[in-house]
Amino acid sequence: MSRVTRRALGIERSKKEQLAAQQKLQQPKEECESALSQSTTCGRYRLSDLIVFQCKQCYTVLGDSLQMCGQDEKLDCVICLRVTNDVIIEEYLMFDVEGFLAGSSYNPLYCRSCRILLGFCLYSTFRSLAHLRRLFCLSKEKVCCYLLESKKILPASDLNFSLSSLKGKFAELKGSLVEAYSRAQFLEGRMEELGSETMHCGLSTQEMGDMTHVEK
């Protein structure tokens, strides 16, 4: 075999080895990307619970489900604790004389991009709606939702944002707190009993010492 042929074979072999090494390096990266694409969690949140609220007309981002605290079926709105800067809160107040907001004053909410009316922020109202004061109520008719898990865009009116599933968790938490309070009361009572018994024993010892001193 000539030197040229041996040299060519050596170059070809080195190329194959380099290619095999590159494939080994790329394999963990591909496995990692595959695992990330199949992951159902994002940090400590489930992807199925993550939703981005957008303006239905221009798709401007208005908020997300992490700042959502439920919905109001009568007012047909999504209730949020916070919204993005693309939601304009007008300084003037509006007052309704009919409908579900009759007798209530509120600041209207507008989309910064397309200027459509998105909802309202209650300023003053009756007791039945007092829990919505200072919260951002976005009309479901004016909002669409981007679902992070399925990467689909759906109208907000097609989704249910009620927090009824949390009632069971609150009831469970309440039961745990009541049980912990009962245990604390029991331990406090036992500590008082032990304290009184200790004082009684101390007095008895002192009396016995006094009696011994008198006998002497």
What does this molecule look like?
40% of the residues lie in helices and 25% in strands. The protein contains two helices and 13 strands; from the N terminus they run αβββββββββββββα. It has helices spanning 3-38, 165-215, and strands at 41-42, 45-46, 51-55, 61-64, 68-72, 77-80, 87-89, 94-95, 105-111, 117-124, 136-139, 143-147, 152-155. Strands 5, 6, 7, 8, 9, 10 and 11 form a seven-stranded antiparallel sheet that branches. It has a four-stranded antiparallel sheet with strand order 4-3-12-13, with no helix packed on it. A hairpin with a 4-residue loop joins strand 12 (143-147) and strand 13. The radius of gyration is 35 Å and the shape is elongated.
- From the spread of the alpha carbons, the general shape counts as elongated
Q: Oligomer, anyone?
A: single chain
The H/E string reads: HEEEEEEEEEEEEEH
Mean pLDDT: 75
The major beta sheet can be summarized as: 7 strands, antiparallel
Roughly how many Å is the radius of gyration?
35 Å
Indicate the low-confidence ranges by residue numbers: 24-41
Individual helix count: 2
Percent of residues in helical segments? Answer: 40-55%
SS-derived structural category: alpha+beta
Q: How far apart are the first and last residues' alpha carbons, in Å? A: 123 Å
- Count of β-strands: 13
Strand content: 25-35%
